[in-house]
Amino acid sequence: MPAYNADLEKFAGYDAQVVGISMDSVFSHVEWQKRDIGLLRYPLCSDAWPHAQVSRQYGVLREGPPVPGINERAVFLVDKQGKIVFSRLYELGQSPPNEHVLEALKKLQGG
After folding, report:
1. pTM (2 d.p.)
2. CATH number where 51 lies
3. How many domains are there within the chain?
Protein backbone atom coordinates (compact mmCIF):
# COMPACT_ATOMS: atom_id res chain seq x y z
CA MET A 1 0.00 0.00 0.00
CA PRO A 2 2.86 2.44 0.53
CA ALA A 3 3.79 1.90 -3.13
CA TYR A 4 0.41 3.33 -4.15
CA ASN A 5 1.13 6.31 -1.90
CA ALA A 6 4.42 6.86 -3.72
CA ASP A 7 2.76 6.71 -7.16
CA LEU A 8 -0.35 8.81 -6.51
CA GLU A 9 0.79 11.42 -9.02
CA LYS A 10 1.14 8.75 -11.73
CA PHE A 11 -2.40 7.54 -11.07
CA ALA A 12 -3.68 11.13 -11.06
CA GLY A 13 -2.06 11.58 -14.48
CA TYR A 14 -4.51 8.96 -15.76
CA ASP A 15 -7.41 10.67 -13.95
CA ALA A 16 -7.54 7.70 -11.54
CA GLN A 17 -8.34 7.68 -7.83
CA VAL A 18 -6.67 5.11 -5.58
CA VAL A 19 -8.92 3.61 -2.88
CA GLY A 20 -7.96 0.77 -0.55
CA ILE A 21 -10.47 -1.60 1.02
CA SER A 22 -9.56 -3.94 3.84
CA MET A 23 -11.35 -6.32 6.19
CA ASP A 24 -9.69 -4.60 9.15
CA SER A 25 -11.43 -2.03 11.31
CA VAL A 26 -10.81 1.69 10.97
CA PHE A 27 -9.00 1.58 14.34
CA SER A 28 -6.68 -1.14 12.98
CA HIS A 29 -6.04 0.91 9.83
CA VAL A 30 -5.02 3.94 11.87
CA GLU A 31 -2.73 1.97 14.18
CA TRP A 32 -1.16 0.04 11.26
CA GLN A 33 -0.35 3.28 9.47
CA LYS A 34 1.04 4.92 12.60
CA ARG A 35 3.20 1.96 13.62
CA ASP A 36 4.19 0.25 10.37
CA ILE A 37 3.66 1.88 6.99
CA GLY A 38 3.20 5.60 7.54
CA LEU A 39 0.09 7.62 6.81
CA LEU A 40 -1.57 6.98 3.47
CA ARG A 41 -2.66 9.91 1.31
CA TYR A 42 -5.59 8.03 -0.21
CA PRO A 43 -8.78 6.60 1.32
CA LEU A 44 -8.52 3.24 3.09
CA CYS A 45 -12.01 1.87 3.68
CA SER A 46 -13.06 -0.78 6.18
CA ASP A 47 -15.21 -3.73 5.09
CA ALA A 48 -14.95 -5.38 8.51
CA TRP A 49 -16.14 -8.92 9.12
CA PRO A 50 -18.87 -10.11 9.45
CA HIS A 51 -20.40 -7.56 7.12
CA ALA A 52 -17.97 -7.77 4.18
CA GLN A 53 -20.50 -6.53 1.64
CA VAL A 54 -17.92 -5.10 -0.76
CA SER A 55 -15.70 -8.17 -0.51
CA ARG A 56 -18.63 -10.46 -1.29
CA GLN A 57 -19.79 -8.33 -4.22
CA TYR A 58 -16.31 -8.40 -5.75
CA GLY A 59 -15.94 -12.14 -5.13
CA VAL A 60 -12.81 -11.91 -2.97
CA LEU A 61 -14.12 -12.88 0.48
CA ARG A 62 -12.78 -16.17 1.80
CA GLU A 63 -15.75 -17.85 3.45
CA GLY A 64 -14.15 -21.27 3.89
CA PRO A 65 -10.82 -22.87 4.75
CA PRO A 66 -7.99 -22.31 5.14
CA VAL A 67 -8.61 -18.81 6.58
CA PRO A 68 -12.27 -17.77 6.48
CA GLY A 69 -13.24 -14.15 6.95
CA ILE A 70 -10.39 -12.46 5.11
CA ASN A 71 -10.04 -11.10 1.59
CA GLU A 72 -7.99 -12.44 -1.22
CA ARG A 73 -5.30 -9.94 -2.23
CA ALA A 74 -6.82 -8.29 -5.29
CA VAL A 75 -6.66 -5.17 -7.42
CA PHE A 76 -9.61 -3.83 -9.39
CA LEU A 77 -9.80 -0.98 -11.85
CA VAL A 78 -13.32 0.41 -12.14
CA ASP A 79 -14.15 2.90 -14.88
CA LYS A 80 -16.31 5.99 -14.42
CA GLN A 81 -19.40 4.03 -15.49
CA GLY A 82 -18.82 1.55 -12.64
CA LYS A 83 -17.62 -1.30 -14.89
CA ILE A 84 -14.67 -3.44 -13.79
CA VAL A 85 -12.12 -3.07 -16.59
CA PHE A 86 -9.16 -4.76 -14.89
CA SER A 87 -8.85 -7.25 -12.06
CA ARG A 88 -6.11 -9.45 -10.78
CA LEU A 89 -5.59 -11.70 -7.75
CA TYR A 90 -2.24 -11.92 -5.96
CA GLU A 91 -0.77 -14.14 -3.27
CA LEU A 92 -1.63 -12.86 0.22
CA GLY A 93 1.98 -12.05 1.06
CA GLN A 94 2.61 -10.32 -2.27
CA SER A 95 2.46 -6.57 -2.80
CA PRO A 96 0.74 -6.05 -6.16
CA PRO A 97 3.00 -4.11 -8.52
CA ASN A 98 1.61 -0.72 -9.53
CA GLU A 99 2.81 -1.31 -13.08
CA HIS A 100 -0.04 -3.76 -13.74
CA VAL A 101 -2.67 -1.11 -13.04
CA LEU A 102 -0.72 1.71 -14.69
CA GLU A 103 -0.43 -0.39 -17.87
CA ALA A 104 -4.19 -1.06 -17.82
CA LEU A 105 -4.88 2.66 -17.35
CA LYS A 106 -2.62 3.47 -20.29
CA LYS A 107 -4.49 0.98 -22.50
CA LEU A 108 -7.83 2.48 -21.46
CA GLN A 109 -6.64 5.86 -22.69
CA GLY A 110 -5.58 4.37 -26.00
CA GLY A 111 -1.87 4.32 -25.27
Report:
1. 0.82
2. 3.40.30.10
3. 1
